[in-house]
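Forwarding the complex inputs:
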Amino acid sequence: MQLSHFSAAIIFAFFASIVFGITQRTAPRDMVLYGAKCFAFFAVGTIAASWLMWVVKH
Amino acid sequence: MPQAKSKADAILTEQELNPMAVIAPIAGWLVPGAGHLIQRRWLRGLLLLISVFAMFVLGVLMEGKVYGLNGGDLLDMLGFVGDLGAGSLYFVTRLMDWGKGAIQLASADYGTKFIIVAGLLNVMSAVDAYDIAIGKKE
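Prediction (whole assembly, two chains):
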């Protein structure tokens, strides 16, 4: 099975965010919000780091 | 002051006598999410089970490497510790001789990281199950 770099990063972010949300917060609403925030940070961070590497290369 | 100490001692004793404080983290380590499920946190347990299981299985399907005890290298040993966090998933994978690691594939390296992180996330969920068992978290 082969995943692209982006899809692997998004899948990783998705599952890691679920666990972070459940384990790092107490109230259900906070869990969902924290999980969503972690996912956004993972995804945006990946894209930002990718563009940074593109800039460094060029 | 002595009264405060005795209250703290009472809390500690209560925690020590709670068998769930021992069973939940061990069950959660062996089977992802089980620590939550046996404490009737059905949705949380199910989500943890799916998340850790999916990450571990995807890692193996991507032909990631599952580290053994005698890696011979410090990073291999750290990888072993991370992998071991997945509990029964790790033992089954080793028994079936899966997770050899295909170094010629870029995605296999991702797979290796998926497997390690699945183990580490499972340790986090086992600790969370312990926190629920001792009443630190609902």
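The mean pLDDT of chain A is 95.
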